[in-house]
Specification:
Radius of gyration: 25 Å
Strand content: 25-35%
Structural class: alpha/beta
CATH architecture: 2-Layer Sandwich
Number of helices: 3
Helix content: 25-40%
Shape: flat
CATH superfamily: Lipoprotein like domain
CATH topology: Double Stranded RNA Binding Domain
CATH class: Alpha Beta
Length: 177
């Protein structure tokens, strides 16, 4: 049996008590969030030269390139052609490596590591470095089950996208610091 029952004869002023309880709960939640240090992300403080940027990467349509482009566009950066660019974001290294970690008794792979490495820098139109060369790397381990080969390949693709997403956010955060 429910503790709260709707009564059609309940007057409007009776509902005011519930409204106050709900409002108090929302205020308590807001107070708890602020007490734990939670803050909304602020806009990035990108170098002013990055207002018109050219992205230099081997695969313009890779997941990492698309995420970096999207995150920077949200921060006000416009991606333009080389002749009108005021900054160049160079990403010469965007490499995913899969390495075997453990091999089972019958010489089958049991675990492997998917790692993603990105190297980048930002220069202005004159070639002066605004952000020096930096390398960021993320890795995840994955167990291999020969019985679920299709699930493993899907999970591997998911991990690659997750790593690219994480690295794109790290890259953009570093550009803003």
């Amino acid at each position: 049996m429910s503790l709260i029952q709707f009564n059609p004869r309940m007057k409007e002023h009776d509902w005011c008590g519930w409204r106050n309880i709900r409002m108090s709960a929302v205020l308590m939640l807001m107070l708890l969030c602020s007490a734990c240090g939670f803050q909304l992300r602020e806009d990035l403080d990108l170098p002013p030269e990055m207002a018109r940027t050219r992205l230099v990467i081997d695969d313009q349509y890779s997941f990492l390139a698309r995420r970096v482009r999207g995150l920077l566009e949200q921060s006000g950066t416009r991606f333009v052609a080389s002749d009108v660019a005021t900054a160049f974001l160079e990403i010469p290294t965007n490499k995913v490596v899969i390495a075997v970690l453990t091999i089972g008794d019958n010489a089958t792979v049991r675990e492997y590591r998917v790692s993603h490495t990105v190297k980048f820098r930002v220069t202005d139109a004159n070639g002066r470095e605004l952000v020096r060369w930096q390398t960021i790397r993320q890795a995840r381990e994955l167990s291999f089950d020969a019985q679920n080969i299709l699930a493993i390949s899907r999970e591997q693709e998911y991990l690659k996208q997750d790593l690219a997403e994480t690295l794109a956010r790290m890259l953009v955060t570093r550009l803003g610091s």
